[in-house]
Amino acid sequence: MPMQERLRAWRDVMLLHERKLAAFGLFLGFLFDTVTANRPDQLYTNFIITAYFIIAAACIMLMTIRGKDGFLGPLPLITIVQFSFGNLTSALLVLYGRSGTLVGSGIFIGALIAFLIANEFLRDRYTRTHVQIATWFLLFLPYVAMVAPILWGQFGDVVFLASGIIALTITFTLVEVIRRVAPRDIRLGLVRMTASIAAIYGIFTGMYFLNMLPPVPLSLTHIGIYHTLERTPEGNYAVSFERAPWYEWWHDTNTVFHLEAGKPAYCFSSVFAPTGLSAPIFHRWEKRLDDGSWQTVTYLSFPINGGRDAGYRGYSQTFRTTVGEWRCSVETERKTLVGRTNFVIVNTPPIELFVREL
């Protein structure tokens, strides 16, 4: 079979099954990211993500220069761009999804899920250079915001704002390179592209200052409410607790806490932070009032140091417990929610306590 006929047959197969192939590819990519993207400071994970950004940028440039030429036209390049964007979204969803909670970061996580789904229907729009650049920036900005604290060894407002400037600088450098090789395409969509990038940056920054973004690169690996807590000679923590019933398998400790008179309750948490990153973490003990609002009863802090896979361990205790609904929240210095456990205190002794080391 002549080469041209083989190419035509390959093109026809791609056109016929492109949505199925794209969906299958994204499913495999998401499964792959779920297994491999364990830590935001992992060299392999960042190498793969960076490679996707470079590949997508290169295809955007090629499409702008001569993407409509040739026998297959822009089809292969659009497919690669769409695949790269889809896998970047799934990687960010995995890494951001492991940080924060649906309560504190549900809007942002929902937006990533929505974009992952919408990516399947944006093929026609990916032929427009300004849409490609805006989408690239939409994914690049949260990635830089996640990596910047790892490189600086701290996180906070200054580091976040610096990450935004870095993302903007690199993105507009890409735009300038494309403008030099294809000035007409950039000129036609420059206003819309600039407006889109400005809107993305403004919304993302606003979500940060409203504490609607997950506190990447921090993530909660464990939290529970315990009756006793002691440090062991080996450096672990021996705790006693009431075991959760089998149908609450996702809870480490029982959501019903039987109060013992004169004894405190302990909130123990493990928070993962990348190697070299230090930050203060806060435990907020709250009780639900009769009107449904939450009142802070105890608010304590302790520093964490990154590098431990299972998370940096810390705890707080309070004697100010009374009967009712309670929750212990793990927060950053900006009061961004890292994780939380809810429980109910009843005024009867525990039937049975179990002991384990953490």
Summarize the structure.
The chain is an alpha+beta fold.
Description of the molecule:
There is one protein chain. The chain is an alpha+beta fold and 358 residues long. It contains seven helices and eleven strands. Helix 3 packs antiparallel against helix 4, helix 3 runs parallel beside helix 5 (129-152) and helix 5 (129-152) crosses helix 7. The radius of gyration is 25 Å and the shape is elongated. The model is unreliable at 69-73 (pLDDT under 50).
Which helices and strands appear, and what pairs or packs with what?
Blueprint lengths: L2 H34 L6 H24 L8 H23 L4 H17 L10 H24 L4 H25 L1 H27 L9 E8 L1 E4 L5 E5 L14 E3 L6 E8 L5 E11 L5 E12 L6 E7 L5 E8 L5 E10 L7 E4 L1
Parallel strand pairs: 4-10
Antiparallel strand pairs: 1-5, 2-3, 3-11, 5-8, 6-7, 6-9, 9-10
The proportion of residues in beta strands is 15-25%
For the termini, the CA-CA separation is 66 Å
Characterize the main sheet. 5 strands, mixed
**Order of the strands making up the biggest sheet:** 4-10-9-6-7
What attributes does this structure have?
3-stranded antiparallel β-sheet; elongated; alpha+beta
